[in-house]
Design a protein that fits this description.
Length: about 150
């Protein structure tokens, strides 16, 4: 369908088929803005919102399909997930797909603010550090035992 020189036809088509247009294709004035407080209200499997690079995404319907599992999304639900998203090295396809779930942007006043994370995320480093230390110490002990047995 061509909309050359027919702005009202394009607008009507966009209103009738909102699912095929991302926010990037809409004018800036149509983008809804949300506060950190509003986003934080959507932090469970029934309503799961994320902030990534100051854009707000409703990934509720996508959560069960997420390749990394719903748990990782729940760890970041209702807050800024930019670090987690970038740490996962998402593909270009994933970055394009996420535009389908964009519902708006973080309001200017809340951009750059550090949002209080839940306790689960505050201690996330322990989930990596403790097993790493245990594996390293175990490897050293086993190497010592094997070295002594060779003598």
């Amino acid at each position: 369908m061509t909309f050359r020189n027919n702005y009202s036809g394009f607008v009507n088509h966009m209103r009738e088929n909102p699912q095929i247009y991302t926010f990037k294709e809409m004018s800036e004035g149509n983008i809804k803005t949300y506060t950190l407080e509003e986003v934080s209200q959507h932090s469970d499997v029934d309503s799961l919102w994320l902030i990534i690079h100051d854009d707000v995404y409703d990934v509720t319907k996508f959560a069960s399909e997420h390749p990394g599992g719903v748990e990782i999304l729940l760890d970041w639900a209702g807050q800024d997930a930019t670090d987690g998203f970038e740490d996962a090295n998402h593909s270009l396809d994933a970055r394009e797909e996420m535009e389908n779930y964009k519902i708006g942007e973080l309001c200017q006043e809340d951009r750059g603010k550090q949002f209080e994370t839940n306790d689960n995320n505050k201690w996330k480093w322990c989930k990596i550090l403790i097993p790493s230390v245990i594996i390293t110490v175990s490897a050293i002990v086993i190497a010592q035992i094997l070295w002594r047995m060779r003598k």
